[in-house]
Design goal:
By secondary structure, this protein is α/β, with parallel strands linked by helices. The chain is built from 14 helices and eight strands. Strands 1-8-7-6-5-4-3-2 form an eight-stranded parallel β-sheet. The chain starts with 7 loop residues before the first helix and ends in a 15-residue tail after the last helix.
């Protein structure tokens, strides 16, 4: 029999715990960026505040974003994520399209159809994804060459600002602001741009609504098939990561950890895992359950505890705390990929990488990580 191609990262996951980077937004804030910094010359006349639209920094402050990638890589990250968490036409419309609710209307599928067909929003979304991927690629290759250790670029695909599972109208439980096909179309556009920019992996992350995630995964499959990636054996590995609440359920669609895995396992991802959520201390039992049920690599990159406005990073846990918790996960044989989400700076990732160095990964059968 001819052995299936195995992605280089899959080979790494068999022998050690791979490190993924930390929080882009948290780290950007440590640079003291202001509204004028994110606007630059290009967006100086925008009518809405843009500072919370961190993806735009890839266009207006590329040196800043490159420096952050460099720092995470030098901290020990094997995988760095593109700065594209909200880089879809749907999410970007929050910053560049007038909200109909301000005029007594509402957001609905008719509104979002116009968003999906808006060439300016689509061009902006493409540019953010492609340029961010190229920025990541440059630094991953540069540091990889300098250290003799291959680094990987994960295209970050976030959960959107809309939900396919829930109605925002208490008087109309069946109402949805957006359709499945509209969400899928927005994600297809993002996926193509990330691939054009040179990513190694596609990461559907911080999943609070499983139906949104399903649309993203369908979009990825359709891009692979329609663009001939499947036929040419150039499909990219897919990583999937959910955000869960205190009961271990996805935050909006309320799927348990096991149900979530059963809903996505047909994708045959490189990894499945948990990120963001309530911090590592509350994540252990749910990660343990997922590790027991899933037959692929397990990733874990939690928030640095709960939000704390008095903390320098805005979250409770420091680097030593995160290193201790992730070390406990490794001791329990639960993880193959580890890092941090909100509140985790390069210093956090360096501490995690050091704590996990030489620690054995969760055991995998060889065919589990073929990609």
């Amino acid at each position: 029999m001819t052995r299936a191609y195995q992605h280089p990262l899959a080979k790494i996951l068999e022998s050690r715990i791979a490190i993924i980077d930390g929080a882009m937004g948290t780290t950007i804030r440590t640079y003291g960026m202001k509204e004028t910094d994110i606007r630059g010359e290009r967006f100086k006349n925008s009518t809405k505040d843009l500072l919370n639209n961190g993806d735009l920094f890839s266009l207006t402050q590329p040196k800043l974003i490159g420096d952050i990638h460099r720092r995470f890589l030098e901290a020990g990250a094997d995988i760095i994520e593109t700065n594209t968490f909200g880089a879809t036409s749907i999410t970007q419309s929050e910053f560049f399209v007038e909200d109909p609710r301000e005029q007594g209307g509402r957001k609905d599928p008719e509104f979002y159809q116009k968003v999906i067909e808006n060439s300016s929003l689509n061009n902006l979304a493409w540019e953010i994804n492609e340029q961010s991927a190229q920025q990541c690629r440059e630094w991953a290759d540069r540091v990889g060459s300098a250290t003799g250790r291959q680094r990987f670029v994960a295209g970050s695909i976030g959960p959107l600002t809309v939900s396919l599972s829930n109605s925002p109208d208490a008087d109309d439980a069946g109402f949805r602001v957006v359709t499945f096909d509209q969400v899928r179309t927005a994600y297809e556009h993002q996926v193509r741009a990330l691939i054009a920019g040179g990513v190694d992996l596609l990461l559907v992350e911080t999943i609070f609504d499983s139906l949104n995630a399903k649309a993203a995964l369908v979009a990825i499959r359709e891009v692979f098939d329609e663009d001939g990636l499947a036929a040419s054996h150039k499909e990219l590995p897919v990583m999937i990561s959910a955000a869960v609440g205190r009961g271990g359920e996805t935050l909006i669609s309320a799927q348990t950890t096991e149900a979530f895995w059963n809903a996505v396992r047909h994708v045959k991802p490189l990894s499945v895992g948990l990120n963001c959520s309530l911090g590592p201390d509350l994540m252990y039992p749910f990660l343990s359950e997922l590790s027991e049920k899933a037959d692929v690599a397990i990733s874990c990159y939690p928030n640095a505890g709960l939000p704390n406005p008095l903390s320098e990073t805005g979250f409770n846990l420091g680097p030593a705390d995160m290193a201790r918790f992730l070390g406990d996960f490794a001791s329990g044989g639960l993880i193959n990929i580890a890092g941090g989400c909100c509140g985790n700076t390069p210093e956090h990732i360096a501490a995690i990488a050091k704590a996990l160095e030489g620690r054995p990964p969760r055991k995998l059968e060889r065919n589990e990580v073929a990609a």
